[in-house]
Amino acid sequence: MPGTLTVTSDAFNDGDPIPEKYAFCAPCAEEHSKMSTNISPALNWSGAPDGTKSFAVICVDVDVPTIFDDVNQEGKTLAADMPRQDFFHGLLVDVPADRSSLAEGEESEGLVAKGKDPGRVPHGIRGINDYTMFMASNPDMAGDYGGYDGPCPPWNDELLHHYEFRVYALDVESLGLDEGGNFRGPDVMAALEGHVLAEGKITGTYTQNPDVAS
Description:
By secondary structure, the chain is mainly beta. It has two helices and twelve strands. The strands form three sheets. It has a seven-stranded mixed β-sheet, covered by helices on one side. Strands 2-5-8 form a three-stranded antiparallel β-sheet, with no helix packed on it. Strands 3-4 form a two-stranded antiparallel ribbon. The chain is globular, with a radius of gyration of 17 Å.
């Protein structure tokens, strides 16, 4: 069994709402939703065991609908009990073993139309998050979204969304994924198999539905 990392954030406490500053979208009374500032939150971790050679840091919304037909449609809602799936908001691998934190803004300094470049950065390799799929049909926003892009749950969803910021301590310096960042969430999860020495997470919540308690 993997050991346990302690993961904390200066931005929010475990189980608490994520401030709008760290989101991709924010509630708006006139149009339901508006663009937000999309800053990546600070993350800190401790408890890495001896033999740790790198870290992987992942952000995933575990409450995304599996059917998108009624998403953000006037007069319709997404039932809280409908089937859900993971949506990857950030993928960072091959983080050096001497790191124990990511500073605020280190994975996103703001909202970038068509996405930030995936690939090598000083603190690891950024993969392609799932906004790449979500924005594919929008010519003004379509592109490869690297690094972190924050919460933007459907404004008509009756379920409070949970965002897990996961950190994995690994027994390899590199997961062997593409240096250019041409990999997605399932690729990272598969590459982690057999290499996790310890793991931990902090979970934040977010909603754009004024009828859902945060």
